[in-house]
Amino acid sequence: MISVDDTALAVTDSGGPGIPVVYLNGQFATQGYWRRILADLGSDWRHITYDERARGKSKRSADYSFEVAVRDVDAVLEARGVERAVVVGWSYGAVVAAHWAARNPERTLGAVLVDGAFPYDWLDDAMEQRIRKLFKRLNLVMPLLRPTGLAPRMTAAQQAESNIELGKLSREAELGPVLDGLTVPTRYVVASGTSFGSKGDEQEQIRAGLDAVTARNPNIKVSAKVESNHGALLKKDFRAIADAVREVAHIGS
After folding, report:
1. Global pTM?
2. Which of 20, 22, 60, 109 has a Cα at 20 to 30 A from 157?
3. Distances (CA, A) of 21 to 2, 77, 85, 109
4. Which fold has domain 2-119+173-252?
């Protein structure tokens, strides 16, 4: 457990002399989601995973903002004595990884963004209301899921606000400049189909926002477009993610 501000984060560090890789989870996911990628890469790498605030085994906090999510990367790496690392983020974690890498190019060996960090204006007033209603409905089952670790120890309102904040940060005017500023080797692994809460081809429209980014910034490329949907690719397409980690580490080291 690493103490940060008013909370404590549950961290797992495999140790060893290998290239450090820090894994940044989906918005309400836990570090266990990465286990297949870790196994594929093997013991030659130093794997650092952790649960974000109020997720998994980490403690609650008064602050669940995106900015503290970015700062917590610093706190974890400092606590583990890591100066430079590959950052790998899935979904929400991909946006965190993009921001952290853009702010810390001298500390970033490379970045792998897994089906996230797509600059697209998907949040409007109607979507905001849809998000609030969705999490309000989910609040009925959250108390049953929390003891299993499958749901965060956050209120429905806190989860909704986090998702809405992500929508604002994902707008082209907000996320586009962050991605344009990446100077480290960056690879995307892109899923297919839907994600939780999306309808029809909404998710594919969002992913299409990446085309302009790769055209503008030669440091950013799509490593793989996989068949799995957003929720399944860490389980079914872990090899594509592991290969992207190997690729950026080879370029950046």
Report:
1. 0.93
2. 22
3. 18, 10, 5, 9
4. Rossmann fold (3.40.50)
